[in-house]
Amino acid sequence: MRLALFDLDNTLLAGDSDHAWGSFLADIGAVDAATYTRANDAFYAQYLDGTLDIREFCRFVFQPLARNPLNTLERWREEFLREKIRPMIAPGAAELLEHHRRSGDTLLIITATNSFVTRPIAEMLGVHELLATEPEFRDGRYTGELSGTPCFQGGKIVRLQEWLRARGQPGEVMANACFYSDSRNDIPLLEAVGKPVAVDADPALTAYARERGWPHISLRSRIESDLQAAPDTL
Fold first, then answer.
1. Is 16 a catalytic residue?
2. Is residue 24 a part of any domain in this protein?
3. Cα torsion through 107, 113, 119, 120, rounded to 10
4. 53 labelled catalytic
5. Domain tally for the chain?
6. pLDDT score of 119
7. CATH code for the domain in which residue 124 is found
């Protein structure tokens, strides 16, 4: 298996789907707008700073999932995908994904954002494999609890290793894998793969990638020329 790993938020998307989902819920009146927005913005600032307590954040972000029936959540999600996510797809994302499809790689999105939000986004991007933070789902409803290891920071490595073992793939697969990300929070997984690539990176990852000589690309514009110039790097 040749594995191409992709972070989602601020990498394949020119924005953050987790934060945008919270803003969308506030906009449609599904949550108390003022209170929820303050908390949503505070958690996002912690994420950007690399100080987020992922379990505390999950308790917050899973509350609307637990308080509403699945059919209502799915109706809201369809509107969210149409109005917020489609315009957020980075212009160069499709070209990068297609580059790896043509190379025969297995594509996998690995994201801290929960699977309720991100699974249809992965499908929208034509990526069939997804590792995401999992909200517990029981008897037809979300419980508001976390299921398993959060797919965040070092937890991404744990989840990826579990995924590989379940498919009978050796650990050496990671040594040959590439991983694209924008975030300082993904430095553990970037260091664990053979081909780390920074994408529209935050200041901390930009500096880290520069020190280590990692490629740094942008998906905020078409990247066809970059792919043709350096296919072995990407």
1. no
2. yes
3. -110
4. no
5. 1
6. 98
7. 3.40.50.1000
* pLDDT computed for residue 171 by the predictor: 78
The answer to whether residue 61 is domain-embedded is yes
How large a percentage of the chain has pLDDT more than 70?
Answer: 94
Which residue range(s) make up the domain with 195? 3-229
Residue in 9, 186, 200, 226 annotated catalytic: 9
Max Cα separation, the chain?
Answer: 52
In a domain, 234, yes or no: no
What's the whole-number mean pLDDT along residues 17-27? 98
Q: What angle do CA 85, 196, 233 make, to 5 degrees?
A: 100
pLDDT tens sequence across 186-203: 999 999 999 999 999 999
